[in-house]
What we know:
By secondary structure, the chain is mainly alpha-helical. The protein is built from six helices and no strands. Helix 1 (7-22) packs parallel to helix 3 (52-66), helix 4 packs antiparallel against helix 5 and helix 5 (102-120) runs antiparallel to helix 6 (125-141). It is globular. It starts with 6 loop residues before the first helix and ends in a 5-residue tail after the last helix.
Amino acid sequence: MTGSEPRIDRITRLCDEWCAAATPPGGGLAIGPSTEGLRLSKNGIVFHELTHEELQAACVGLTRVLLRPGLNTVVDDDHLLLWSWLAQLLVSPPGAGAGDDREVRELLSVCVRAALLTTARRADGLNATASATCSSSITRALPWIR
């Protein structure tokens, strides 16, 4: 990687390299130091700084990382950070995303912040409980989100 590598290319390359490193020659899934060093957030990718096209590349790349054929899905902090940022984009502008329902928009906003907080402070059991409570509440308020 060079310092002048465009972010969109770096995002795509890191996700491709993660997929290759996580797939051993005999098949299966091998997650370890060789894959963890390829995580976007560990390589200077900050989701709230990305352009629209870079966010698209991150969505596609992280979906490929997440959905490996015939294997379990492995959700990483990269996924949580991206999903939280995308949710924040949906609820931030007045009247966008959740529509004009202020209570639903505020509930979504609280859940996004709880998800971001638990990512930053995973060891804190209180935050994990708050995130689970928010997730449950939002599913009840918006059943179509499942």
